[in-house]
Design a protein that fits this description.
Elements lengths: L39 H9 L5 E2 L5 E7 L3 H18 L3 E6 L2 E7 L14 H10 L1
Antiparallel strand pairs: 1-2, 2-4, 3-4
């Protein structure tokens, strides 16, 4: 025994579906959405005002080494750094060896068409928050 169903369209009252208004497409490559890298003088001035932070060997990031009184405190700080970096969407490398924690920050990667290498203000903002 086969079962079939019939659906009648257009009988009775018809409902018109409304589409939401179209928003203009967002261009991710617009210059106001891409953070400009800082100049060498700007980077050096910011580093002088932030004791403990040093430029990485390639010059595309900054690094700081922290020593903590106990391993548990160092582990808690690693978790804190990871959460801060995730919220800021910054690539971060954190290394813990016992009570010693090394934090490396660099600028977020940008689309290939507008790739600009260098440190941005957001890197220094996160570094200031980390201490």
């Amino acid at each position: 025994m086969s079962r079939s169903q019939t659906l009648e369209v257009g009988t009775g009252t018809e409902t018109q579906l409304r589409r939401p208004p179209q928003r203009p497409p967002v261009d991710p490559l617009k210059s106001e959405r891409v953070e400009q890298p800082l100049t060498v003088l700007q980077v050096m001035a910011r580093l002088q005002s932030m004791p403990g932070w040093k430029l990485t060997s390639g010059g595309l990031g900054i690094r700081r080494t922290h020593m903590f009184p106990e391993v548990a405190v160092a582990s808690a700080y690693v978790s804190f750094v990871a959460e801060m970096a995730r919220a800021a969407k910054l690539p971060t490398a954190v290394t813990q060896r016992g009570r010693r924690v090394v934090v490396s920050l660099r600028a977020a990667t940008q689309p290939v068409k507008v790739r600009r290498k260098g440190l941005t203000q957001s890197v220094f903002d996160v570094a200031k928050q980390l201490g």
